[in-house]
Amino acid sequence: MCMKHRRVLCAVAAGCLVVALAAPVAAQPARDAHPDIQLFLDAGVPGGPRSRDAFEQLGAQWRDAYAGIVWDLAWLLRPPSQGFVHFFTLIGFLQEQTGQRFGADLAGWQRWIWSLPYDPHPDHGYFKGQWYSQIDPRFAEFFPRGATSLIRLDEIEWGGVAVNGIPPLEYPTRLEADEAGYLADDHIVFGIAVDGEARAYPKRILAWHEMALDRLGNVELTIVYCTLCGTVIPFESVVDGRHLTFGTSGLLYRSNKLMFDHETNSLWNTFEGVPVVGELVGSGLRLTSRAVVTTTWGEWRRRHPETTVLSLATGHRRNYAEGAAYRTYFGSDELMFAVSRRDDRLSNKEEVLVLRLPDPDRPGELLPLAVSASFLARNRVYHHPFAGRNLVIVTSGQGANRVYDAEDVRFERRMDDERVVDDAGRVWRVSEDGLVPEGGADVRLARVPAQRAFWFGWYAQFPDTELID
């Protein structure tokens, strides 16, 4: 997440030692014979009797399910941090307790840890909040003792920045299309239209902020961009009558950013738009996603001459040149953070168009679908039956993908980027809201929200996805 991650880590590692030097928390009642979580924090202190005593007590009560906690300790103390000597002490302790011999290979330890059945220490989350609080005290607010989690806590990692260390844009300044002289026609933008109002969010700006709180068509939006997994999703900010204000937690789950709401400090999965750690877990809340299209500025402006677009005057100092943000990461197939599962049918960062729809056979369940962008470039009008619907994906000459519920209509070809023809010869207009027949017929085939993603990021979250490539 942070392009200066190694430098930040060095500065943080020394501070991480403070947490276990503080006065111990009050003793907690025995919880299924688990050791007091403070022992793990004590074990993170380089040298000294408290650390030695902690290792002895943890060894006597050891379960392999605790390896993820020790991994967290080691990860923040790894070379070149100031605590790297203690890093090897922690690794030695792990090897002694588990019988595994991964040495300093933290990725190897992760793979082994994630292969174990998930049976966490009941205070694993509290530990994580306390340990990470030395990076930023606000991390502790995400993991109060007893907080419920729907995801594996050993798969939540620090992304290299503090809370909102990648600052969201809040109701950013916008320009009319003819005022945006900084954009060239081939620059990538994320286009969103709500109730007839269109706006372009240039990748070159949004990549530096990864979130924009905005209002479009009188709808409050939280537009989330996970640069690591290549996904932009616009969510409605109002859910169940509550207007939630979101921020960037600085934490990752399977290389996907976790956002949080300021109202409850609950952590949210940004692929699904649901709370996964904290007070709102179990509330039934799910954010409504809106359609977005990844396209070029020239194509978006041509289709939407009335569009507005973000200004470079964001209030932040960044290099907003095209391609400047995450240039090295986007330019390779290497991952910055490990994920618990990968699939080699596609390269890690091959772009796929993704969506999830309700399963008609299992109420409450959503079915995932991924279609490679290269496949869609070869199949500009593509029908696919999915989740009880007749989906049609229309792809423009610039590679912009839009998905519609075609119902009982069968489309055969594109006339141009704005029109498609069905098997009865009727011409339909491609709009942001739906497919509309020319000639004034009162029919509209609804748009289905979908977005681009890197294959590895989507698969890590949804391994049961159907893939078309």
Any chance you could write out the topology, listing elements then pairs?
Layout: H1 5-16, H2 18-21, H3 38-43, H4 49-60, H5 67-77, H6 84-98, H7 106-115, H8 124-132, E1 156-158, E2 169-170, E3 174-176, E4 188-194, E5 197-202, H9 203-206, E6 211-216, E7 219-226, E8 231-236, E9 238-239, E10 242-243, E11 246-253, E12 256-261, E13 267-269, E14 274-277, E15 293-296, H10 297-303, E16 308-310, H11 327-330, E17 351-358, E18 366-372, H12 373-378, E19 381-386, E20 389-395, E21 401-405, E22 411-416, E23 419-422, E24 427-430, E25 434-437, E26 445-448, E27 451-454, H13 455-461, E28 466-468
Parallel strand pairs: 2-6, 5-16, 18-28
Antiparallel strand pairs: 1-11, 3-16, 4-5, 4-15, 6-7, 7-8, 9-10, 11-12, 12-13, 13-14, 17-18, 17-27, 19-20, 20-21, 21-26, 22-23, 23-24, 24-25, 25-26
List keywords for this structure.
469 residues, alpha+beta, Rieske Iron-sulfur Protein, eight-stranded antiparallel beta sheet, 28 strands, disordered N terminus
Give a short overview.
The protein is an alpha+beta fold and 469 residues long.
Number of helices: 13
* Terminal CA distance: 28 Å
Q: Please, how many domains?
A: 3
Low-pLDDT runs of 5+ residues are 2-31
Averaged pLDDT, please? 93
Q: What is the helix content?
A: 10-25%
What's the alpha carbon Rg, rounded to whole Å?
Answer: 24 Å
Characterization of this structure:
Helix content is 23%, strand content 29%. The protein is of the alpha+beta class. The protein folds into 3 domains: 144 residues, no CATH class; 159 residues, no CATH class; 118 residues, 3-layer Sandwich (Rieske Iron-sulfur Protein). It has an 8-stranded antiparallel sheet. A hairpin with a 7-residue loop joins strand 17 and strand 18. Helix 5 packs antiparallel against helix 6 and helix 5 runs antiparallel to helix 7. The N terminus is likely disordered.
